[in-house]
Fold each of these.
Amino acid sequence: MASPTRNVERKPLAQRLPRPMSADQIEQFFTHVNSLRDRALFSLLYGSGIRISEALSLDIEHVKLVDGSFTIMGKGGVERIGYLSEATKTLLRRYVRERGRPQHGPLFVSRQGRLSYAMAYRLFSKYAEGLPGEKPTIHSLRHSFGS
């Protein structure tokens, strides 16, 4: 028996975009970030507007610190070129220098290997604790780019 709802048009559910963080929240957030790796990661998200999954999938060979560019595979397997802010370039140089200069492999690492989304999310939540206003998410940094 055919469903009586088969011809009923469904409206897509409205998706709510994360709110950008305020300038005050951004400033306070970065004062709480005490790890060079974390500061470089979150600066990359804020300064370039890329997705957290794109940042975590970056390999060292995808980042050209000399000219401040990087190559990522975006949604749908589309290759994109992004550019680093001067602050992010400085942080990434320090981070790469302090962790050693491997020629290839994950840019952001933990003791277990490539930094995971779950770990990045936990770190962001820890640093964002107690910020004024609506509680931001890790995606709020991406949406704060350019605002």
Amino acid sequence: MRKLTMTAVFTLLAASAAAQVVEDKVSVGPWDIATAFRGNTFVHCEMRRTSDGLGITFLRAEDGLALLLDSTKWKLERGKTYVVKLSAGGAGIEGKAEAASKGVAISLPDRTFNARLRSADSLDVKGEGATLTIPLDGSMMAMERLEACYTKNEKSSADINPFVAPNRKP
């Protein structure tokens, strides 16, 4: 699985509403799942919620799964990479949080760890200054829907039937 590049992550974080349209949100527990398109081109599926002022997004794109965290309270150095430790369901991995001004993106290439996220109650993201506890209640069904969204939309390109508009539902 290829690593999400910083350029791709920043594009996702900073894309304008005109360039990238998120369509047809579906709620699964506390999570909203949606598809994102740039014109008629499928970009990614996302699973989003907020908790105590923290924006939490799991993003499933061609390059794999990523966690995006954002807060209006944060003052981050754009382009800086922070080392973080992630732990969920008794497992842990080390990762890199790539910063924008108010958020970070963390690539999640470890499939074994990602499987643990589905059944864990929370995800701890430990940086040098603090540990963020990300609530994962309802994530099992939401992550299944996220993956189904990606699989469905990845395959629904113009190659299948160029005369019918794609069904853009998550």
